[in-house]
Amino acid sequence: MKVASIATAAVLAALAPVALAAPSPLQPLPIHVRDGDVDDAQAQYNNLTAAIQQQVLQSLNSTEAKLRKRGQTPSCTARNIVFRREYGSLSQADRLAYVNAVKCLQNLPARTPANVSSGARSRFDDFVVTHIQQTLTIHYTGNFMPWHRWFVYTYEKALRDECGYTGYQPYWDWPRYASAPQNSPIFNGDPYSLGGNGEYIPHDGPVITPPAGVGGDPIQLPAGVGGGYVTTGPFANMTVNLGPVGGLVGTAAGPDGGLGYNPRGLKRDVGPAMNTRYANYTTVLNLLMKPNITEYRLLSEGVPYTVEIGPHGGIHYTISGDPGGDLFTSPGDPAFWVHHGMMDRMWTYWQAIDPAKRQTDLNAGTYGHVTWANDPPSALTQLTDVIDMGYAGPSTTIGEVMSTTSGPFCYFYL
Ligand SMILES: *[C@@H]1O[C@H](CO)[C@@H](O)[C@H](O)[C@H]1NC(C)=O
Ligand SMILES: *[C@@H]1O[C@H](CO)[C@@H](O)[C@H](O)[C@H]1NC(C)=O
Ligand SMILES: *[C@@H]1O[C@H](CO)[C@@H](O)[C@H](O)[C@H]1NC(C)=O
Ligand SMILES: *[C@@H]1O[C@H](CO)[C@@H](O)[C@H](O)[C@H]1NC(C)=O
Ligand SMILES: *[C@@H]1O[C@H](CO)[C@@H](O)[C@H](O)[C@H]1NC(C)=O
Ligand SMILES: *[C@@H]1O[C@H](CO)[C@@H](O)[C@H](O)[C@H]1NC(C)=O
Ligand SMILES: [Cu+2]
């Protein structure tokens, strides 16, 4: 199969604006998953994801056929679409190429001016700065999924355009290693991993403290099997420059609201407890079965300040450590990007089940507003709202990124 680059697809899209105006031929996908008994959640999840992949490729084919009949040229087809793959299913050479591209990004100069962030030292840090600056307006908000889709794409594009990477952003299939993520190809510390776990230090897990006014007792989450510095694999002794914003156990808050220079070693606390509790096969199957975006996001992101933190939070805390345990600075751990690759994969698959509806629907429920969980009450998020990448890359609008097979995109997940 000849695979054109995403950049080529974007150019074709620009040359063929008529094609983009074509009516959507996508129909809801008939899915047959048994309710209740989820003993075979893994098999059902694998069945469902395979069916979705097949459906998307077929619908690209039928769109292409219809457009060609009218003398139009489609931009994204089953032949030029590119695929993001699971980290552990990449060959060792492909994993190494990815790792080396991330290291390259960490060695390129920052574009962020010092008067915006005196701590940003690399292109990699540009992404961390953008996330720190916008944390409070891109989580539990209507733009959460689109914003992070464009964030991951911009990172992938930087790896490709600035660091010569020829692959695509890999993802972390959360349930796949849930019983021992520290031994997974992502964290086993071999030369093809994203670095090992932190060194084992006896400790308690993170505590979620509800803010004044929200009420409720602090929630103790389980610890991982690391806790200290990462000393093995490609990111052993990696220096974290930015954050943490609010401070972490054993690490005081960094200067300038996390944007100042605060060099320190990368720490992790990877382990099975968070992963099995919050991101198992039942979780991902249930997620794909959710009937609307409100329900989807309540499972995916959980209910703030309750023990149900969802796979989004559950996997952030499966990485944990510093900066992984700090919501603001979390993109400063290279593992953030495979986690958010999976976040985007789940949303992409869920959207593909009923694309006409789910590629436009984003602002329902408490998480559909421009303020964090609509507190204080605010306007609904709109498709025309801007996604600002700061110095990480170009900005766009939410409407541009609602489908991964149109507009600037032509990618899907295997
Ligand atoms: C998966 O799909 C196959 C073939 O369609 C079917 O025979 C099997 O029962 C399915 N398994 C589950 C757990 O749904
Ligand atoms: C799409 O069409 C191509 C030929 O143009 C074919 O090889 C491929 O199998 C089709 N894919 C699907 C999923 O139907
Ligand atoms: C940073 O400095 C540049 C040029 O020196 C200036 O144009 C810009 O407004 C400054 N930005 C901030 C946030 O102070
Ligand atoms: C990491 O730092 C420690 C302590 O400075 C040192 O002993 C170790 O060799 C370093 N490891 C790597 C892979 O650079
Ligand atoms: C699997 O995840 C769900 C949350 O999605 C949780 O309720 C359940 O307890 C988890 N299963 C195990 C074995 O921890
Ligand atoms: C979403 O689905 C739930 C469960 O079926 C339902 O109670 C709720 O009304 C739906 N919300 C919207 C906005 O459609
Ligand atoms: Cu985020």
TrEMBL record:
Q: Where is the signal peptide?
A: 1-21
One matching Pfam family is Tyrosinase
For this protein, the record's InterPro entries field holds: Di-copper_centre_dom_sf, Tyrosinase/Hemocyanin, Tyrosinase_Cu-bd
Which part of the chain is the Tyrosinase copper-binding domain? 139-156, 333-344
Q: What is this protein called?
A: Tyrosinase-like protein orsC
Establish whether keyword Zinc is in the entry.
Answer: no
Keywords, A to Z, come to: Metal-binding, Signal
One molecular function GO term is: oxidoreductase activity
Tell me which SUPFAM superfamilies the record gives: Di-copper centre-containing domain
